[in-house]
Amino acid sequence: MTKLDQVVALQIEGSSFSLAGVLRFAHMNGGFGALEDYASNVLIDAYAREHGLAAGHEELQEAVNEWRSEHGLYQASEVREWLADRSLSASDLSEYARMKIAKNLVSAHVAAGQVERYFAERRSAFDAAAISQIVVEDRGIARELAFKAQEGTPFYELARAYSTDAATRLAGGYVGRRERAQLPRAIAELAFGPHAGAVVGPIAIDKRFYVIKIEEAYPAELNADTRARIEGLLFDEWLADRRRQAGVHIALWGQDRVNGDTGHDERE
Model's pTM, two decimal places? Predict the structure, then answer.
């Protein structure tokens, strides 16, 4: 019987990777979306080694501790039992932790020096606003409700009485904080101009009419959260480009996965 470590699951840039390695990662990762993830990890690891990005002992221990906490494994005996039940070893856990740290190190490395320019070029995309809405089926009714709200009738009362949107009606129409990209374009074009407290509309979207109240405006700023998000976006762009360049062949399924496409081999 062929051993799993002799079954080639992936081929990347001339190197072969066994099914045994993929399955070990799948067990640690909690699912068999691991072929794509494993291929990405191979590319991330290669970049980390090329640029001398390595985790220290304390970082590895912290990553292992986080994994144990996530799985509710607080005793060393529980960890050993969990690994043994899945035919895994302590070295598999260490490798999993090393790869998680490598991903963070590579993410920071590929984004270095690019965050500020990325933010400057796409600043408006990070604008946000907290909004409430009233949704009705008739433009005339929407216009009347907008007038009432502008004249001082509490918006939440109008939303509870007239809105047909079940998801927000009982909350007085409150939608919450949304960034520009999370809103329909027609709403976004109006939501980020007026000052807080303004009521705009009606706005026609898919045969329904929206009246929007701007509860609070949050102009984009390059804070820690935004910086982390941009680093993530830059890393995703880098990884997608790296995968296209590498040409990943998923040998296990007899499929080529290049540029995100799957080609099925129809031959007998």
Answer: 0.65
